[in-house]
Amino acid sequence: MLNVVFYTKENCSLCEDASSLLTLLQNEYAFTIEERDIYTNDKWLEEYQLLIPFVKINKIELNCEQINLESLEGALKQETKSA
């Protein structure tokens, strides 16, 4: 099954929106969501602090400015075809 890695933090409205989109898309695509709080890992904090919410779907990476329903669905379609 496809695994989506979702970098997030508490009290982040953009993160909540992205989480809602991912949950919505789980109705159409089979994938799990691995949620990672950037404040629990120094490397994640350094790498993603200015980019969250940040989503990794295999080699596809989407940052806060790129995440929307269309981009997430497009990435999921692409990666479920190649799986």
UniProtKB/TrEMBL annotation:
It comes from the Bacteria. Pfam families: Glrx-like (PF05768). Signal peptide: none annotated. This is Glutaredoxin. The lineage of its organism: Bacteria, Bacillati, Bacillota, Bacilli, Bacillales.
